[in-house]
Amino acid sequence: MRPLSLTMCAFGPFQASETIPFERLGEHPLFLINGPTGSGKTTILDAICFALYGRTTGDEREGSQMRCDYAADDTLTEVIFSFELAGRGYRIRRVPEQQRPKARGEGTTTQSTEAQLWAIDPDGSERLLVPSKVSEATREIEQLTGLSVEQFRQVMVLPQGKFRELLLAESRQREEIFSQLFQTRTYRQLEERLKAQSAGIRREVEKGRQIQQGILQGIGLETAAQLDEALQALQPELEQAQARQRVAESQHAEAVQALQQARHLQDGFARLAKLQQQQAGLELRQDEIKLMQQRLQRAEQAGRLKPLFDRRSTAREAMQEARQKQQQAGQAREKARQALTDAEAVLKQSEPLSETLDQQKRQLATLQGYQQRAVRLVHAVKQLKTAEAAEQEVLAAQQKVQAELRQILQQREQFQHELSQQQAQLNQLHDAPLRLKQISDQLRDKTTLDSWLQQRERQRQALDQAGQAGKRLAAELQDQADACKRVELAWHQGQAALLARELQVDQPCPVCGSREHPAPAGFAGDLPGQSTLEQARQAVQAAQERLNVARDDYTRKKSEIASLDDRIGELTQQLGEVKDASLQELQQQQQALQQAVEKQASIRQNLQSLDTRDGEQKLNEEKRRNHLEQLNAQVMAQRSAAATASSELKSAEQELPADYREPGVLDRAIRETGMEVERLDRAIGSARSGYHQASSTHASAKATCQSAEESRMAAQAAAQQAERQWSEALKISPIADEAGFLEALLSEDEWSRLQQTVRDYEQMVQQTSGALQQQQVALEGHAAPDIPGLERQLASVTETRAAADQVWRQLDKRQGQLQDARETLQQSERQCVELEQQYALIGTLSDVANGQTGDKVSLQRFVLSVLLDDVLVEASRRLQLMSKGRYQLLRKSERAKGNRASGLELEVEDAYTGKCRPVATLSGGESFLAALSLALGLSDVVQAYSGGIRLDTLFIDEGFGSLDPESLDLAIRALIDLQSSGRMIGVISHVAELKEQMPLRLDIDSSREGSRIKLVTL
User: Where is the composition biased (Basic and acidic residues) (predicted)?
Assistant: First the structure.
């Protein structure tokens, strides 16, 4: 990745929009980002990291906390970063969550996070890859760069306090970083695939063995040999029981048949008695049925007259409705005539209003002509007042600026005096840091020993806790194993019970094929399912895994304590004859010198503050002088404007009559005249509209009244004709009068009910008579049977058959269980042998690939260790140069203690002592040089491998202040050497020596209004 430009708006200490044109720094620049503490040097790295991943370099602040306090409310906080990657250009924009003014109304609203990503083609055209979604933009950047935010901060942007993380990272952490950089996921995927495959085979074997044991437990045996012996001994007993069961079954069938025949004869006698009783009941209902038949006949005669009766009723109702409509039409005609008379009177009264309306319209036109002159007069008055007020404001501001200018000159003299005093105190404390370092070196070993002793005590307590946890997990594993065995036994017994439930008489058994089932299996309670069995087995496996983890943790803690004991012994021997009294004296001296150093830092901060304030005062003085000149010019301009406004006022007063010069008089006259015009216009229009509407309504009412009269006459004639037809039909019918007609009528439901009752009765009489005759013929010559005697005989035979059947079923069930168990055991044994043969190959490969043998080095870690060796060769070449031949970085070859991952640990070889020691023992400055060497070596090797991630840029934030002048010069030479190989190197520091040796700089100036960035090229 190569940065092209970075734009920060209201971000961090940058109040306005600041753009860093990285492309103007040259092809392969080595540049310095320089500025005082707090000016915003690290903010540049925060902005790059935030633009790419939405997070800052140190993770101390969220994106929403990066808004500049100096920024205007309507300025949006955003970062835009353009970069080149693999020959292609990209641009990304991010906006953090923030408060902004509402588009409408007062108050603020929450601006949500945004992110846009564009791809820039070689011809300069842009394609939008991500429109707004933040997570999608981050995911796209990770795919493009091949780095997560943590890896980006460790290999491309090294922020404050992060130098030693890559150097001191554990083997597993360094494995994650290197696997991403060198794209070795294939090896890791192979490890996981082999591990999963071997674990699956192991689980299948264990499952098969558990099934075998469960089958044997289910049949009450322990070995397969006992199973064969039990089958041979069972066969003679089964044959004898089957013969006894057949004899008992035959006797039972004969007794059942005799009882069935007797019950059938008994049912016939009962049916005969019931039919005789039913026939007697039908004879009692004959008179009731005759009355129903006569009622149906009268209803049929009345039904023939009903259409004429309904027609007469309808005609009477129509005549009555026509009379009502005729009366309503006459009333409406009279009301319309009266309304027409009233409308004519109103129209005559409105004729004189037309002349008055014309007069008011002419008056309104005259007043509207005065309106423009009144506006000009009001505008002239406002101009005059505005000019006079502005002149007074400018004069007041002029006096205020003059007073501020005098105050600034007095403050500058006071600041210069304080500056000279602070500089004198700083010179007195110049040697304090050197003396503090000498004493700190003497106390460091003692402090380290105390820390290690405390750590050993904490680890011993943790070891005791781990041992107790292991015992508890072992007990849990035993409980889970016992519960699993109980579930497996119940499951096997339940499977036999399920098969027994499906058995049917004279149908073959699915296990043994027999059609006889003398003793089917049973199971009390709920049957456990396959899922319950799997859950029990998974619980055992989970408990075993937790116990394994606890044991590994116990072993690891024990190894760490042993290693710490060795380090404590070595350090105790090195301390030698150091006495407690000497240490106390050194501590007192250290405290005194620490106070001196703190005072020195405070003085430096005061000096910097005074310099800043002095610069601000100079800038304010210049601003006030410029402002004073502007105010003088404004006074002259406002006086000229006041004279012009006074002349315009006199001209406007001459054109407008005096009666309308008062504010609001002319507007009120125009408004009143306009309202009178509208009132007269509405009155005339309303009178004319009312007359036309009344005339139309009267004509319509006359036509409606005539139509209603014609309808009434027609309805009356129809009613008279219907009355004559009804009277004639009633005279010739069997019904005497209209009352008899209404009495004879039946509803459709009642008619259907009576008719259905008569039909049902006639049908029941026929059916009962035929059935009675048939039943009497069937029972002729038969006597009532002895049912109780036959039932006692059947009960005796059934008991005998049940006893024989139970003996046979129990023996047959036992034989089926044993045969099925033998077949299942043989099949399971064959599968287990095949799986064990597979595990012999796959399990060995998995152990080797996952680092479970030998030196505990996995396949991926082995590949990465080779790559790490190449990185350390390049890193050691630079570290030897910067440490004047003393140090070089090596990969630790021996296996780590306990179950910790091995293969990627680092140590440093000290040429002065000829020994290797952990990298954590390096001092602050030495750690910086080692971390810088490792980062530069990593940059070289990653780009040397085909398919790796290209690291074209490296930003280094601080760390140079811990180096002596000679080491600083060597570090700069290493950076220049790296720059010559085609890298962009950015160094963030305020060390004065770097500013002198690196002419290409980004200087950051800070003030009360925020920071500004300036590109410097010497």
Answer: 314-324
How far apart CA 745 and CA 730 sit, in angstroms, is 14
User: Mapping DSSP to helix (H, G, I), strand (E, B) and coil, where does residue 956 land?
Assistant: strand
509 and 517 Cβ atoms separated by less than 8 Å: yes
What integer pLDDT is reported at residue 4 of this predicted model? Answer: 92
Residue ending a domain, among 558, 578, 598, is 578
Helix (H, G, I), strand (E, B) or coil at 976: helix
CA quadruple 345, 346, 352, 358: dihedral sign? negative
577: which strand partners?
none
Which of 141-150, 351-360, 815-824 is the least confident region? 351-360
Residue 860 lies in a domain: no
- Residue by residue, DSSP assigns 885-932 as TSEEEEE--SPPSTT---S--EEEEETTTTEEEEGGGS-HHHHHHHHH
Residue 485 has pLDDT above 80, yes or no: no
Q: What b/e sequence results for 926-963 when a residue is b if at least 16 CB atoms lie within 10 Å of its CB, and e otherwise? A: bbbbbbbbbbbbbbbbbbeeeeebebbbbbbbbbbebb
Q: Is the pLDDT of residue 66 over 80?
A: yes
Coil, strand or helix at 865: helix
Q: C-alpha 432: how far from its chain's center?
A: 56
- What residues make up the domain containing 500? 444-578
Q: Cβ–Cβ contacts within 10 Å for residue 832, how many? A: 18
The CA–CA distances, whole Å, from 136 to 81, 96, 121, 287 equal 17, 15, 21, 96
Half-sphere exposure of 553 (CA within 13 A, CB side): 18
Could you tell me how far CA 26 lies from the centroid of its own chain? 45
The share of the chain scoring above pLDDT 70, in percent, equals 73
SS3 state at 850: coil
Range name among 389-403, 500-514, 963-977 with the lowest pLDDT average: 500-514
Residue 485 has a CB neighbour count (10 Å cut-off) of: 16
Distance of CA 75 to the CA centre of its chain: 31
Lowest mean pLDDT among 19-23, 39-43, 489-493: 489-493
Residue 785 region, left (φ>0) first, then alpha (ψ -120 to 50), else beta? Answer: beta
In a domain, 526, yes or no: yes
767 pLDDT above the threshold of 90: no
Output the 3-class SS for 617-631. Answer: HHHHHHHHHHHHHHH
pLDDT at 14 over 60: yes
Q: Is residue 669 part of a domain?
A: no
Structural domain tally of the chain?
2
Q: Please, what's the b/e burial string for 506-540 (b: 16 or more CB within 10 A of its CB; e: otherwise)? A: eeebebbebebbbbbbebeeeebeeeebeebbebb
Are 92 and 81 in contact by the 8 Å Cβ rule? The answer is yes
578, 600, 617 - which closes a domain: 578
Please name every residue paired with 85 in a beta bridge, in sequence order, or none if there are none: 88
Residue 311 lies in a domain: no
The pair of three-digit structure tokens given for residue 1012, joined into one six-digit string: 């500004």
- pTM exceeding the 0.85 threshold for the entire prediction: no
Distance CA 771, CA 761 (A): 16
Q: How far is C-alpha 710 from the chain's CA centre?
A: 81
pLDDT at 19: 93
Q: What is the SS3 assignment for 80?
A: strand
Q: Mean of the per-residue pLDDT values for the chain?
A: 76
Tell whether the model's pLDDT for residue 9 goes beyond 80. Answer: yes
